[in-house]
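Per your request, structure below.
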């Protein structure tokens, strides 16, 4: 008798969740009955209403999509040909699930989190690992509980953070790592273990204010970490009028030095003036002198 696939509800929204969705959909051990994602929203200066990456991927895979404004209040659509889910899989969904939803799956609600819990519980773990100069990070598969990122750990995989690694580079690596670890975990008999009580740190949701830098108050290393961690969003700004897109801590061709706190120097490699296009630091400095 053929083994029946595990039935899943998948909740995710940004690009980070897409690799997990794709590997689950490609594996015959799983059947994704419904993808849950955030509503379409205006994007960019023109405010063009844009679907989230997970919705786009799910539609290409032919999986039904549900986009509730409040998942805890709106009734879930009926799936007449699908049994109760074995798992709810949550990957960067963007809404907290209340207890009645956590109790829905027959086996467990599980979450892919982009840190080595209990370090960096919260909404921006990849950025904060870079901001704080962490040498390693990783991915945690946790059994979800009502409290944010406090669930018992089912599996983890660690990775070193490169000395010059950017948010985009680390994000893409962890998304792939998390996808493969998720599949391994759902097919294993690993038992959840409580998170350690020591080493707990929290990270908040980022805002545009998170990217403001002041070289009189910040060292070169602090500004460089912000540039690597906070691009492309929320971005890093100097004096509200100059976006800093790339920096180095050593002299670099076409870069200009910026004196920082404690007589340290960061080198502006790529910048973007307000209303202008990206340019090298030297090009920007020449324009200022004219």
């Amino acid at each position: 008798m053929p083994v029946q696939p595990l039935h899943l509800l998948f909740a995710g929204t940004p690009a980070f969740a897409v690799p997990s969705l794709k590997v689950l959909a490609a594996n015959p051990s799983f059947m994704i009955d419904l993808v849950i994602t955030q509503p379409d929203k205006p994007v960019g200066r023109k405010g063009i209403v844009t679907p989230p990456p997970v919705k786009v991927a799910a539609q290409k895979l032919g999986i039904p999509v549900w986009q509730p404004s409040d998942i805890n209040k709106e009734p879930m659509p009926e799936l007449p040909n699908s049994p109760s889910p074995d798992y709810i899989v949550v990957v960067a969904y963007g809404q907290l699930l209340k207890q009645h939803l956590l109790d829905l799956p027959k086996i467990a609600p599980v979450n892919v989190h982009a840190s080595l819990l209990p370090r960096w519980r919260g909404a921006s773990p990849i950025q904060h690992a870079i901001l704080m100069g962490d040498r390693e990070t990783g991915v945690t598969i946790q059994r979800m509980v009502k409290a944010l990122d406090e669930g018992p750990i089912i599996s983890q995989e660690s990775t070193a953070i490169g000395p010059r690694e950017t948010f985009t580079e680390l994000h893409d690596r962890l998304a792939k790592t998390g996808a493969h670890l998720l599949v391994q975990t759902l097919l294993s008999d690993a038992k959840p273990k409580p998170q350690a009580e020591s080493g707990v740190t929290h990270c908040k949701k980022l805002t545009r204010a998170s990217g403001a830098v002041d070289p009189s108050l910040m060292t070169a290393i602090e500004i460089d970490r912000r540039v690597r961690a906070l691009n492309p969003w929320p971005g890093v700004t100097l004096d509200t009028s100059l976006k800093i897109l790339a920096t180095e801590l050593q002299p670099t061709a076409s870069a200009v030095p910026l004196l920082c706190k404690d007589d340290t120097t960061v080198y502006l490699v790529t910048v973007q003036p307000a209303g202008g296009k990206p340019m090298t630091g030297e090009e920007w400095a020449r324009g200022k002198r004219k």
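The chain has two domains: 6-202, 208-289.

Regards,
D.
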